[in-house]
Specification:
The protein has about 130 residues and is an all-alpha fold. It is about 75% helix and about 0% strand. Helix 1 (about 20-35) crosses helix 2 (about 40-80).
Length: about 130
């Protein structure tokens, strides 16, 4: 019998309404996974806490996410390239600005499309 996956497994937890507790438990897992030197007992305790929070599915998902970030970090480190802080600041500013102004940008694009359609209609009316 297939399990119903339409609702995340952790949603029925007693910690459902306490986001800070969930974040703390997941953060403890990532801290244990990234500790140098590695402490297997700390990892076991962190995994057990995550399992209690959301079942084995959440443990697997969290560990896969931690592994993916670790792999990307190693890949970027291996290139030897660094992002210049000025460029990083500009990119960050641009992204934040676009998110903040998404409605204004959408309205501006809609106005451009409306002007193009109106121009096309006026040209065809001649």
């Amino acid at each position: 019998m297939m399990k119903d996956l339409s609702v995340p497994p952790f949603s029925s937890s007693s910690l459902e309404n306490n986001r800070d507790d969930r974040e703390a438990i997941l953060t403890a897992l990532s801290t244990a996974a990234g500790s140098i030197p590695f402490y297997p007992k700390a990892m076991k305790v962190a995994c057990d806490n995550v399992k209690e929070l959301g079942g084995m599915e959440l443990v697997v998902e969290a560990c896969a996410t931690i592994g993916a970030f670790e792999a990307i970090t190693k890949l970027v480190d291996a290139t030897g390239k660094t992002l210049h802080s000025k460029r990083e600041d500009k990119v960050h500013f641009a992204v934040v600005r676009c998110i903040q102004q998404r409605y204004a940008i959408g309205a501006a694009l809609a106005a451009i499309v409306a002007a193009a359609v109106a121009s096309s209609v006026l040209r065809s009316a001649r």
